[in-house]
């Protein structure tokens, strides 16, 4: 009898349809490997504006850490202030602005979002300056889910229509910066050319003196050398400006 019951139990078990497991991470729970500014933002969930004439000092702290210590009230729109504060606390330069759309000119653009990237939305007229910014944690049913400040006057997780999305951005880091890629290319070139590359740095210091001597005997060569120098300086300045711009500084 026991063997029969065991056989029947096995038949019932095998006849059940397979159950699918939902592996979608909960936006409320920290996930392994997420960036530091997202972890910091989660710790702020529930912070609200103070009622009446009072002002929540925690919200004022967001303004301070974002670079606007002069703001002394929590009625000033603070979604960009919150995101900037989380980035700065994590050691990354923010957009240096309290305008949500300032993040469209900050960092690097992303084609595909990941938890922790910055999501920028339009608000009202898509052509206006108004917007909203938050930290991406997921999406569902045409909605983008972000942790953000000033969402119903508090730090919360909220959904915004994907139709209002203006773009995803991420900060420039050591792994995705133009400088790092250029440096890596330089290392490869140095390995290929050998120690002559290392010696050339010292030799370059004498270029000005050599060009001046050449100019005394052949003005045409001196002019060509001067133009070459100008071109090199332009490239150096361009690379530096571009690097600072993408870092949001």
Properties at a glance:
249 residues; alpha+beta; endopeptidase fold (from Nostoc punctiforme); 2 domains; six-stranded antiparallel beta sheet; 43% helix; extended
Give a nutshell description of this structure.
With about 250 residues, the protein is α+β, with helices and mostly antiparallel strands.
Would you write up a description of this structure?
With 249 residues, this protein is an alpha+beta fold. The protein folds into 2 domains: 36-170, endopeptidase fold (from Nostoc punctiforme), CATH 3.90.1720; 178-246. The chain is 43% helix and 14% strand. It contains 8 helices and 6 strands; from the N terminus they run H-H-H-H-E-E-E-E-E-E-H-H-H-H. The protein has a 6-stranded antiparallel β-sheet. A hairpin with an 8-residue loop joins strand 2 and strand 3. Helix 2 packs across helix 4 (79-89) and helix 5 crosses helix 6. The longest helix has 28 residues, at 219-246. The protein is extended and about 100 Å long. It starts with a helix and ends with a helix. The model is unreliable at 17-25, 177-181 and 186-201 (pLDDT under 50).
């Amino acid at each position: 009898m026991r063997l029969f019951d065991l056989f029947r139990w096995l038949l019932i078990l095998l006849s059940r349809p397979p159950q699918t497991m939902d592996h979608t991470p909960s936006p409320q729970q920290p996930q392994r490997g997420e960036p530091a500014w997202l972890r910091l933002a989660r710790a702020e969930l529930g912070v609200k504006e103070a009622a009446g004439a009072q002002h929540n000092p925690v919200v004022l702290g967001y303004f301070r850490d974002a670079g606007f210590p002069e703001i002394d009230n929590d009625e000033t729109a603070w979604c960009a202030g919150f995101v900037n504060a989380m980035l700065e606390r994590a050691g990354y330069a923010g957009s240096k602005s309290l305008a949500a759309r300032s993040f469209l000119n900050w960092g690097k653009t992303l084609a595909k979002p990941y938890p922790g990237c910055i999501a920028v939305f339009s608000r009202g007229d898509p052509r206006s300056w108004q917007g909203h910014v938050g930290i991406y944690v997921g999406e569902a049913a045409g909605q983008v889910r972000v942790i953000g400040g000033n969402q119903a006057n508090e730090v919360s997780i909220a959904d915004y229509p994907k139709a209002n999305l203006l773009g995803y951005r991420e900060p420039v880091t050591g792994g995705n910066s133009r400088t790092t890629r250029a440096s890596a290319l330089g290392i490869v070139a140095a390995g290929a050319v050998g120690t002559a590359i290392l010696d050339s740095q010292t030799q370059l210091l004498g270029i000005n003196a050599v060009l001046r001597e050449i100019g005394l005997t052949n003005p045409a060569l001196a002019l060509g050398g001067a133009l070459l120098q100008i071109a090199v300086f332009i490239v150096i300045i361009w690379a530096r400006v571009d690097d600072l711009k993408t870092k949001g500084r």
